[in-house]
DNA sequence: CTGAAAGCGCTTACAG
DNA sequence: CTGAAAGCGCTTACAG
């Protein structure tokens, strides 16, 4: 198909080494030779074959990003940042969707382990420590979100316990006493859901409020329908909640929908807090109070750490804890007046 | 780093050809040899180097997907489907974000033109026919969304004129007479915005309603803030609209926010229709009436057509028009009762 | 059924 | 400042 270095060399009447020198902009090429080579390149429409270059260098210039699904805005926004950060360093990003099952087969088959990528940023979810440890032996790895086991690989996350505690404290500070939690998951022992639940419980304990298991509703996935269904369950309780801490914004937006459809007012009757700070929550009615992780910083840290590993850094696993901040908006702001959308 | 075919061959005491035969599961390998090779593979932890294989085959097994940004849910959902469709065919997807500027530099540098991908699915936006024609000479191309010029490359899209006409007719059918449009763009002559505007105008004309340029508001990008700002502009008119057709759901959700914040009721005072059918609109309050393109079909058609080209199909540019359907929800349903969210 | 050799397109010591 | 040659790891005619 395309022309190769050899073709260019032949046309320019020089060796491939010289063409390579010109292409890679090494000095020590005479101006005359350089322009002759340039001409040949233009004439043939030559562009370097990156696959060959990668084979030679022993790397592909591509990193993988394994996420549950792009359909969850938090991950889409994060992917956006990761791609941008990688591009700044002239790396490309291959995205793998794990469907939240963290299915080993998928990861294995999808190139993560087949040396087509030089490193992997992975949101682990259902993957266990053992599997990840094995993966790390093959491939530089950066974990996103939550530590799966002690010192498995580099990690970038926010302090989820503190974040959850602050969110719950904020609701308690509003004077609410029946504070529910939506998003519990029993899948893995160290998952994000568990640490968020822990922060929730700490806040309740500090406020001297008894933990009521009825107020903690699991969510199979973290989409709006799950939040909506969980909220319906909570509304069916004899003593329903007056506030809800949702483990992500999508669950919160689903819960919000259920509340409004049931004729309840938010925050007057039930206040809501989410996590992620996705754009949706800044334009919903009411707007959504949320814990905002610094996604740009998370993405940059992940890419930086991964490339350091790809470049041979041999150090014990590192942890970057990115900052987060509670964004108070209408869904917990009882001062603002109520409005009627329909 | 990892073991190569040669290492395995040496350990198993056979030639590399034989190892290759085993790895690729060719028949005609004696059971004894096969198991000896298998053992060596396990022992060395051998996995094939895809880069080398790709060099040999002259292709990378990777296709590119160039989108404005993953932060726009429609594109994130589409990317999700494209990745899934590609994976079914054992292809990987490299995502490029063009930032809506369709910037040539980015595309050029980001691998699209550097032979690291075997084909490209691209949402063209600001790219002109000339540039795309030049690209197609290098690389199999499938255009997403809108035809940029006559017969430039394979295209998959919905019938945007009809979709826009139907959306507008739906609003007119509600008895609205001041129907605004948000999302006009002057960038390219054949862009999606223009065909949607055309459908809008056709519907007005068919209903015998004069076209009022004051009711058509441009949007620089298609995010919620743009819709919110455009709606504020419309509300400042002496004779504000009683309905709005937004060129995508994000604009519609932004407009919705402005209306509710201004104390207006939707749809009682102003009815709204969007395009894209993103998940947000199914859970907003009120839920959003929208034109739903069949994203799965769009993604599958794009991947199928691209792979056909990658496999050498030499045919004139083809067009796939995917189905769409108007999803009527609360934002235009004047029959449903009004509820008060806050 | 298996082996030795060439070649995909590049880069990089090694000479000159 | 430039060239001839080896090699990255794979596959594939070509022999046997």
TrEMBL record, chains A, B:
SMART domains referenced in this protein's UniProt entry, alphabetically: HTH_LACI
Keyword match DNA-binding: yes
PROSITE patterns attached to this UniProt entry: HTH_LACI_1, HTH_LACI_2
Location of the HTH lacI-type domain: 3-57
One function term, GO molecular function aspect: DNA binding
Keywords linked to the UniProt accession: DNA-binding, Transcription, Transcription regulation
InterPro entries for the chain: HTH_LacI, LacI/GalR-like_sensor, Lambda_DNA-bd_dom_sf, Peripla_BP_I
CDD domains named in the record: HTH_LacI, PBP1_LacI_sugar_binding-like
PANTHER family in the cross-refs: LACI-RELATED TRANSCRIPTIONAL REPRESSOR (PTHR30146), LACTOSE OPERON REPRESSOR (PTHR30146:SF153)
Name this polypeptide is given: LacI family DNA-binding transcriptional regulator
Lineage, highest ranks first: Bacteria, Bacillati, Actinomycetota, Actinomycetes, Pseudonocardiales
């Amino acid at each position: 198909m395309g022309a190769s270095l050899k073709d260019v060399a032949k046309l320019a009447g020089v060796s491939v080494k010289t063409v390579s020198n010109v292409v890679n902009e090494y000095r020590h090429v005479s101006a005359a030779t350089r322009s002759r080579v340039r001409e040949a390149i233009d004439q043939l429409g030559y562009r370097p074959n990156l696959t060959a270059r990668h084979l030679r260098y022993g790397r592909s210039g591509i990193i993988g990003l394994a996420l549950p699904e792009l359909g969850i805005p938090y991950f889409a926004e994060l992917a956006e940042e990761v791609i941008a950060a990688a591009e700044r360093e002239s790396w490309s990003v291959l995205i793998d969707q794990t469907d939240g099952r963290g299915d080993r087969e998928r990861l294995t088959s999808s190139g993560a382990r087949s040396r087509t990528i030089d490193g992997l940023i992975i949101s682990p979810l259902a993957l266990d420590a053992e599997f990840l440890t094995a993966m790390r032996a093959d491939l530089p790895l950066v974990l996103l979100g939550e530590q799966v086991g002690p010192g498995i690989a580099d990690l970038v996350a926010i302090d989820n316990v503190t974040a959850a505690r602050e969110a719950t404290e904020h609701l308690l500070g509003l004077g609410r006493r029946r504070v529910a939690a939506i998003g519990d998951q029993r899948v893995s022992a160290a998952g994000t859901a568990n640490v968020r639940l822990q922060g929730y419980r700490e806040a309740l304990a500090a406020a001297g409020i008894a933990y009521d298991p009825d107020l903690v509703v699991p969510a199979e996935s973290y989409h709006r329908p799950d939040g909506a269904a969980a909220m319906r369950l909570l509304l069916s309780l004899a003593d329903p909640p007056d506030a809800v801490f949702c483990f992500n914004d999508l669950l919160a937006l689903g819960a919000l929908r259920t509340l409004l459809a049931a004729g309840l007012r938010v925050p007057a009757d039930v206040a809501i807090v989410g996590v992620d700070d996705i754009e949706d929550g800044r334009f919903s009615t009411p707007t959504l109070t949320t814990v905002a992780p610094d996604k740009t910083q998370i993405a940059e840290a992940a890419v930086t750490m991964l490339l350091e590993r790809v470049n041979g850094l041999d150090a014990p696993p590192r942890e970057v804890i990115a900052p987060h901040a509670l964004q108070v908006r209408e869904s917990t702001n009882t001062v603002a007046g109520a409005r009627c959308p329909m």
